[in-house]
C-alpha cells in the first residue's frame, strides 16, 4: 500500500490553501480531487468578494479569520500578480425599517475590526453611486474582489513547488482510523487504490460532512448536520450602473438583491436563498421575478429583460432555514479525539476570503496540537 504523510481531500480554495501550508511545513502532500480539474465546486460559484469582515458574529471563526484573511489575500495577490482590487461596498437600508439593522451592522463591523464604515445619507450615497436609491448606506472601502481561479492556481503552484502532488478524477470512497494514521480507499476511474497517511484534511466542501460520516473510527456526534442553501445568480446585460458592490438588508439579500462586479466590470445579482434537500446546481430561470422586485428596491431603473441567467452555487450551512447563522466547524484532534484528522464542515462565505488563515489554523491543529479556538487565534495573529 502506498503511504504519504498528508492527504488533503478536495482541490477547492480551502483544500489548496491547506495543501500549500502543509507542503511548506515540509510534509509530503497528496491532494485527492474527485473532479477532473481544480476549483470546480463551491469555489467556482462564489461572488469572488474579499469580505472586510462586517457581518459575522464577533469572535466566531469566520469573523476572526475573515479580517486576517482579507489582508492576507490582498497581500498574497499583490505578491503573486493575481488580479484583486479594493473596489469598496455600500451596505444599504432601502427603507426606514432597515435603519436599525444598518446601525447594528456598523456596530458589528467595529467589533470585528472590519474597518470604520462611514454612515451616508441618501444624498451622500448618491454622490458615490448616482443610480442608487436608499434611505442610508454604510461605505466599506476595505471590501474588494479577487480572481478566485487565479488565486487557486497560485496556491496549487506553491504547493507543487514544495512537492505536493495533485490526483484529479480521484474520489475518496472510505477512510478508517489506524494506529498510525488512516487507510483510505480512493476510486480513480473505476480502479480502487488504498493509501495510508498520517494526516487527513477533509476539505471536501459540500462533501465534507458525508466524508466525515464515512470515517470508520470517528464518533458520529462530532459531525454536524449540514443544510444546503442554494443561491442563484443573474448577470446584468450592458454596462454596470454601479462601481461598488451593493448589499441591501437581509430580506432583500435573500431574494437576490446583492450586487457584485467581476474584475472585467460585469455586474451580477445574487445569490438568493433557496433551501434544498439534495445537491442540484441546475438553473431555475423562473427565479428572475423575485430578483427584479428585490433589485428595484434600490435600483428602480432596472429594465425588464436586463437580467440574464448566470449560474447557481450551494452553501453548506450548519444552520437551517430561519435559524441564526452558525459558525464553521473547524474540527481537529482536540475536538473529536482522532489524531491527525481535521474536518472542515459548513465553511461557506467568507471561506474564499479566509482560505489562507484557515490553512494556518489547520496546520496549528495538526502540527502544534492546538485546539480549534487556539488555532484560530494563532492563525489570525500570524496572517
Ligand atoms: C453562492 C456563493 C457565494 C459565495 N461568495 C463568497 C464570496 O464572495 N467571498 C467569500 O469569501 N466566500 C464566498 N463564498 C464561500 C466560498 O466560496 C467557500 O467558502 C469556499 O469556496 C469553499 O471552498 P472549499 O475548498 O471548502 O470547497 P469546494 O470549492 O467545493 O472544494 C471542495 C472540493 O472537494 C471535492 N470533493 C468532494 N467530495 C470529494 C471526495 N469524496 N473525494 C475527492 N474530492 C471530493 C469537490 O469536487 C470540490 O472540488 C460563497 C459561496 C457560495 C456558495
Secondary structure elements and pairings:
Blueprint: E1 2-9, H1 13-24, E2 29-32, E3 49-50, H2 61-80, E4 84-85, E5 89-93, H3 99-112, E6 118-121, H4 122-128, E7 136-140, E8 144-146, H5 148-161, E9 165-167, E10 170-178, E11 181-188, E12 191-202, H6 208-214, E13 215-216, E14 227-236, E15 245-247, H7 250-254, E16 259-261, E17 267-269, E18 274-276, H8 288-295, E19 307-317, E20 329-331, H9 333-336, E21 341-345, H10 355-367, H11 372-382
Parallel strand pairs: 1-2, 1-12, 2-9, 5-15, 10-13, 12-21
Antiparallel strand pairs: 3-8, 4-8, 5-7, 6-7, 10-11, 11-12, 14-17, 14-18, 14-19, 16-17, 20-21
Helix pairs in contact: 1-5, 1-10, 2-10, 2-11, 10-11
The structure holds flavin-adenine dinucleotide (FAD).
- What would CATH call the class of the largest domain? Alpha Beta
Shape: globular
CATH topology of the largest domain: FAD/NAD(P)-binding domain
Residue share in helices? 25-40%
Mean pLDDT: 97
Bound compounds, each kind once, are: flavin-adenine dinucleotide
Q: How many individual β-strands?
A: 21
Structural class estimated from helices and strands: alpha/beta
Oligomer description: single chain
- How many individual helices? 11
| C-alpha termini separation | 37 Å
Total domain modules: 2
CATH superfamily of the largest domain, please? FAD/NAD(P)-binding domain
Task: Give the strand content.
Answer: 25-35%
Low-confidence stretches: none
Radius of gyration: 21 Å
CATH-defined architecture of the largest domain: 3-Layer(bba) Sandwich
Largest sheet: 9 strands, mixed
Amino acid at each position: 500500500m502506498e503511504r504519504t504523510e498528508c492527504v488533503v481531500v478536495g482541490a477547492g480554495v480551502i483544500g489548496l490553501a491547506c495543501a500549500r501550508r502543509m507542503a511548506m511545513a515540509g510534509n509530503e502532500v497528496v491532494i485527492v480531487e474527485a473532479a477532473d480539474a481544480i476549483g470546480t465546486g463551491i469555489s467556482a460559484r462564489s461572488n469572488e468578494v474579499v469580505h472586510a469582515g462586517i457581518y459575522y458574529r464577533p469572535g466566531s471563526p469566520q469573523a476572526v479569520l475573515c479580517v486576517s484573511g482579507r489582508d492576507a489575500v490582498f497581500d498574497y495577490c499583490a505578491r503573486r500578480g493575481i488580479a484583486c482590487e479594493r473596489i469598496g461596498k455600500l451596505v444599504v437600508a432601502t427603507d426606514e425599517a432597515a435603519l436599525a439593522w444598518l446601525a447594528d451592522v456598523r456596530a458589528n463591523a467595529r467589533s470585528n475590526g472590519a474597518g470604520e464604515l462611514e454612515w451616508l445619507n441618501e444624498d451622500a450615497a448618491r454622490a458615490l453611486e448616482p443610480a442608487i436609491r436608499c434611505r442610508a448606506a454604510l461605505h466599506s472601502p476595505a471590501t474588494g474582489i479577487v480572481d478566485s481561479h487565479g488565486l487557486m492556481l497560485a496556491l496549487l503552484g506553491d504547493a507543487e513547488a514544495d512537492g505536493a502532488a495533485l490526483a484529479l478524477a480521484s474520489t475518496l470512497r472510505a477512510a478508517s482510523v489506524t494506529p498510525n494514521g488512516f487507510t483510505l480507499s480512493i476510486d480513480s476511474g473505476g480502479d480502487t487504490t488504498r493509501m495510508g497517511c498520517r494526516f487527513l484534511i477533509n476539505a471536501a466542501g459540500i462533501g465534507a460532512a458525508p466524508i466525515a460520516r464515512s470515517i470508520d473510527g470517528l464518533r458520529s456526534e462530532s459531525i454536524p448536520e449540514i443544510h444546503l442553501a442554494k443561491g442563484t445568480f443573474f448577470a446584468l446585460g450592458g454596462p454596470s450602473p454601479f462601481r461598488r458592490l451593493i448589499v441591501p438588508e437581509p430580506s432583500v439579500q435573500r431574494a437576490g438583491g446583492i450586487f457584485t462586479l467581476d474584475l472585467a466590470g460585469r455586474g451580477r445579482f445574487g445569490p438568493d436563498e433557496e433551501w434544498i434537500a439534495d445537491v442540484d446546481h441546475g438553473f431555475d430561470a423562473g427565479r428572475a421575478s423575485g430578483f427584479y422586485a428585490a433589485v428595484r428596491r434600490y435600483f428602480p431603473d432596472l429594465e425588464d429583460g436586463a437580467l440574464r441567467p448566470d449560474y447557481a452555487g450551494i452553501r453548506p450551512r450548519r444552520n437551517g432555514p430561519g435559524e441564526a447563522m452558525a459558525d464553521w466547524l473547524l474540527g481537529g484532534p482536540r475536538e473529536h479525539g482522532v489524531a491527525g484528522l481535521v474536518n472542515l464542515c459548513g465553511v461557506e462565505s467568507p471561506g474564499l476570503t479566509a482560505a489562507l488563515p484557515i490553512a494556518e489554523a489547520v496546520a496549528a491543529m495538526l502540527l502544534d496540537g492546538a485546539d480549534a479556538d487556539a488555532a484560530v487565534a494563532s492563525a489570525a495573529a500570524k496572517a
